[in-house]
Structure formats: C-alpha cells, structure tokens
C-alpha cells in the first residue's frame, strides 16, 4: 500500500505540470517499493527450509534483500529531491505568462534561474498544491525508506544472528566440580 501510494502521488504530480522533472515526481521509488513487496509475498509463499537448503529460497531471499537495499536508496533520494524542490519553492516569486507559471528564486538577478511550469493557469493554486504534494512525498518516502531499512535489518539479522565473539572462558572451579561429580 505504501509503494502504491508513493507511485500514485508521483503520477499525480506529473499530471499537474508536464514540465516537472522525473526527479521531482518520484513514482520510480514507489515502483521499486511495490516490487519489494511482491518479492516479499513470493518469499512468504515458499515453504521454509532451515539453513536455506533450497536454491529457490536462497535466491528469493537474496533478491528481497538487494531490492530492499535498492528501495532504501531510492526512497532516500526521493526524500532529498522533494526536500530540495520544496525549499526552492518557498523562495519563489511566480507570475502567470501564456498558460504557464514562471517562477524565479531571485527577481533582482537578471541571470537567475527561471522555473517554468507548463499547463498551469493559476500560479497560486499550482504552488500550494505542489507544496502539499512535495510534503506528502517526503513523508511517504521517509516511511518507505524506514520500512526498507527494517526489511534489510531483519533479513541480515535472520541470516547472521550468531556472531563469533571469541573463546568463552569458564572458571577452573566449575570444571573441577564437574569432574568430581563424574
């Protein structure tokens, strides 16, 4: 559900303006999270064998771990891109010109970068809607990143739950008592 919501929100953002970049509409992060969820459901359907004695079980677990790590990276990138765009939008000065919304960071700088949002007749509505969508993307992708991180942690912990910490020393008195009882 989380992956689907991120994907749908990304496509909604792309529908607002045709000039939004792919990094600003992170449907790609949601698609990866959906694939991770599907592989997780496949992993649940495979009968469990201790110590991964089947090739299918090992392959699905490895794919699930790698896709979860990829989903984690994609969601963190999506949060970073959305936060960057949101911070820029808070400093925009926008005007509607010929069915497009043109926004500048610094109106006094003639060489300053101009952001053009095509197919937008109302700049105020576009900016407020886009700000809301960017905030939602940040929250949803952060939650998805935490879910992917927890999936990676659980898979790692399940595989390597016993760590070698060295030789365990027993007191000499305990071994002497055990020998006397025999």
Brief account:
This protein is mostly helical. The protein is 64% helix and 8% strand. β1 (93-97) and β2 (100-104) form a beta hairpin.
Core attributes:
182 residues, 3-stranded antiparallel beta sheet, 64% helix, 8% strand, 5 helices, mainly alpha
Molecular structure report:
The chain is mostly helical and 182 residues long. It has one domain (1-91, 122-160). 64% of the residues lie in helices and 8% in strands. It has helices at 2-16, 27-45, 55-89, 123-159, 172-181; strands spanning 93-97, 100-104, 114-118. It has a three-stranded antiparallel sheet, with helices on one face. A hairpin with a 2-residue loop joins strand 1 (93-97) and strand 2 (100-104). Helix 1 runs antiparallel to helix 2 (27-45), helix 2 (27-45) packs antiparallel against helix 3 and helix 3 packs antiparallel against helix 4. The protein is elongated and about 65 Å long. The termini are far apart.
Q: Specify the biggest β-sheet.
A: 3 strands, antiparallel
What shape does the CA trace take?
Answer: elongated
Oligomer: single chain
Quickly count the helices: 5
Category by helix and strand content: mainly alpha
The helix content is 55-70%
Keywords: Membrane, Transmembrane, Transmembrane helix
Subcellular location: Membrane
Main location: membrane
Pfam families: CD20
């Amino acid at each position: 559900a989380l992956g689907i919501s991120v994907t749908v929100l990304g496509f909604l953002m792309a529908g607002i303006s045709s000039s939004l970049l792919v990094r600003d509409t992170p449907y790609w992060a949601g698609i990866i999270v959906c694939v991770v969820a599907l592989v997780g459901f496949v992993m649940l359907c495979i009968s469990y064998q201790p110590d991964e004695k089947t090739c299918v079980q090992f392959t699905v677990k490895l794919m699930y771990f790698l896709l979860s790590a990829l989903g984690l990276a994609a969601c963190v990138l999506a949060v970073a891109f959305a936060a960057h765009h949101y911070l820029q939008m808070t400093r925009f000065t926008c005007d509607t010109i010929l069915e497009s919304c043109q926004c500048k960071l610094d109106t006094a700088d003639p060489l300053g970068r101009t952001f053009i949002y095509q197919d937008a007749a109302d700049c105020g509505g576009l900016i407020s809607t886009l700000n809301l969508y960017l905030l939602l993307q940040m929250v949803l992708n952060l939650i998805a990143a935490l879910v992917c991180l927890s999936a990676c942690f659980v898979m790692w912990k399940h595989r390597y739950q016993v760590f070698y910490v060295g030789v365990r020393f027993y007191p000499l008195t305990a071994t002497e008592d055990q020998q006397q009882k025999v």
